[in-house]
TrEMBL record:
Pathway the protein acts in: Carbohydrate degradation; glycolysis; pyruvate from D-glyceraldehyde 3-phosphate: step 1/5
GO cellular component terms listed in the entry, alphabetical order: cytosol
Keyword NAD on entry: yes
Residue span, Glyceraldehyde 3-phosphate dehydrogenase catalytic domain: 1-80
Enzyme Commission number(s) from the entry: 1.2.1.12
GO molecular-function terms, A-Z: glyceraldehyde-3-phosphate dehydrogenase (NAD+) (phosphorylating) activity
Descriptive protein name: glyceraldehyde-3-phosphate dehydrogenase (phosphorylating)
Lineage: Eukaryota, Viridiplantae, Streptophyta, Embryophyta, Tracheophyta
Signal peptide per UniProt: none
GO terms classed as biological process: glycolytic process
Length: 80
């Protein structure tokens, strides 16, 4: 197994059993279909992670007005 950079295949140039490998996903597009208000407002990527069970969300947003962390958590919980 190669564990180093590859100019031809930057994902494949890593040992899958020891590294987080970036990949592509259709999750953001699917979220826009399920939640039409978010359609076209999300982008996404996936990670191949060498664990049995893992989940991660890296959410970055641009707010229209200032909001505290607690207000953001409450808004997400309300919409869930």
């Amino acid at each position: 197994t190669v564990d180093g950079p590859s100019m031809k295949d930057w994902r494949g140039g890593r040992a899958a059993s020891f590294n987080i490998i970036p990949s592509s996903t259709g999750a953001a597009k699917a979220a826009g279909k399920v939640l039409p208000a978010l359609n076209g407002k999300l982008t996404g990527m996936s990670f191949r992670v060498p664990t049995v069970d893992v989940s991660v969300v890296d959410l970055t947003v641009r707010l229209e007005k200032s909001a505290s962390y607690d207000e953001i958590k409450a808004a997400i919980k309300e919409e869930s």
